[in-house]
Amino acid sequence: MTPIPELIARKRDGGDLSAEEIDELILADVPDYQLAAFLMAVYFRGLSTRETFALTDAMVRSGETIDLHAALGRRVVDKHSTGGVGDKATLAVGPVVAACGVPFGKMSGRGLGHTGGTLDKLESIPGFRVELTTDEFVSQVRDIGIAVVGQTANLVPADKRLYGLRDVTATVDNVSLIAASIMSKKIASGADAIVLDVKVGDGAFMKSVADAEVLSEAMISLGRHAGRDVVCELTDMDQPLGRAVGNALEVREAVATLKGEGPDDLEALVVESCAHLLELSDLGVDLEEGRRRARAAIADGSAVEAYERWIHAQGGDPADGALPRAPFIREVFAGRDGFVHALPALPIGLAAVHLGAGRRTKDDPVDHAVGIVCRKKRGDAVEEGEVLAEIHARDEASAVEAATAVHDAYELGDDAPRAVPIVLETIGA
Ligand code: URA
Q1: Of all atoms in ligand 1, which is nearest to the CA of residue 185?
Q2: Are residues 175 and 260 in the same domain?
Q3: Are residues 256 and 281 in the same domain?
């Protein structure tokens, strides 16, 4: 075994590490200070494709893996987003896919910083259990067709450790480390086909399409190496997705989308993601037929029925009246006539965090009722005095503070801006 300082020094000086050497760093009991130094060396020097494969593989082998395909005897699909503001797509994609007869099994995370997490949104539903045993998870995917749970403690424990260190050593935003982190969890949790929603914009990790393309190619090749089909959708995160930002508000918007009453951008993204998942499933349909079936499941009520079955199966109450509501609602008004030129996702996400909808540190509690509803989005015409947004708050003082931040985030101009589609590019289809 090579001494750990020699491995760190080789990476620091731009050299390559073998798969055995990466195993030694990830699977042996290396102290935090050495792993942190290794991460900083990777941050500056990067990892080759071969090293990224080896890192991902070692991370997968650090804990248990689930073979959903073997347990169900058929192809299982999953979707994952790299994280954004107002991103409740999973809550609608899962039930639509399940309603189309394709098993959907997903392990999700919590929100951190200005990006929300699917588990927090689900926990705004009274009674909903995000912690299932591996056996319960597998049985529910088989019997109900859909399960979304928190990552079990023993699934890729190396990622929990590495991510914790990256978070406090300024080494999160490195393409190889992000790709290995996301794909190790997707590979270990067992789906055959994965649609990755790679967010691009001010509210996302990837600020440019070029960076998102590099990350997507890395994740597709990691998936291929592990025998998984991966499609990456690069999607717009220069404004929040849909209108609602905040946990219970987002659940309501996802349910509205399942009934065909959702905002256009969210519905378009849900249909497109479902079409890719159906194409990658064992149904044997092409993308156009996938889109048709996804729209039909929304139109005929089977998608919302699948949602209700799923929420009941995990102990929750799917009724709208069961969701918490914030006691204060304050409106934000337009100061002039014109068009919304920009509604950047980052300040809206941060305003929601200040209201209590998200966490500043990972142990903060979340207030499920609060958040922001953006009544006007980029491209919408507005008149002076018209409502731009609603603030749903716990108390008046936080409502006033958020209203100022949201008002300042809206950029109004004279002419309609150029329209930007929600899906900017698809890679790996
Ligand atoms: N999401 C993850 O799971 N890991 C990262 O490194 C970044 C986003």
Answers
A1: 3
A2: yes
A3: yes
Q: Give me the CATH number covering residue 366.
A: 3.90.1170.30
Residues 172 and 203 in one domain: yes
User: Which has more confidence, 112 or 224?
Assistant: 224
Residue nearest to atom 7 of ligand 1 (CA): 178
- Look at residue 29 and tell me if it is in a domain: yes
Q: Domain containing 31: what range?
A: 4-46
- Chain segment 374-398, per-residue pLDDT in tens: 999 999 999 999 999 999 999 999 9
Per-residue pLDDT averaged across 142-150, rounded? 95
Beta bridge partners of 193: 77, 229
CA–CA distance, 186 with 26 (Å, rounded to integer): 18
pLDDT digits (tens, 9 = 90+) for 57-70: 999 999 999 999 99
* pTM of the entire predicted model: 0.94
Q: Which residue's alpha carbon is at the smallest distance from atom 8 of ligand 1? A: 82
Please give the single-letter amino acid code of residue 55.
Answer: L
- List, chain by chain if needed, residues with CB within 6 Å of any ligand 1 atom: 82-83, 172, 177-178, 181-182
Amino acid at 424: L
Q: Is 380 helix (H, G, I), strand (E, B) or coil?
A: coil
Residue 182 CA to ligand 1 center (angstroms) comes to 5
Q: DSSP assignment of 89-150, as one string?
A: HHHHHHHHHHHTT--EEEEE---BTTB--HHHHHTTSTT------HHHHHHHHHHHSEEEEE
In a domain, 128, yes or no: yes
CATH number at residue 180: 3.40.1030.10
Same domain, 277 and 348: no
Q: What is the pLDDT of residues 33-83, one digit of tens each?
A: 999 999 999 999 999 999 999 999 999 999 999 999 999 999 999 999 998
The DSSP 8-state label assigned to residue 206 in this structure reads B
- Does 61 map to a domain? no
**Token pair for residue 173?**
């935003």
Give the span between the Cα atoms of 156 and 93, in whole angstroms: 25
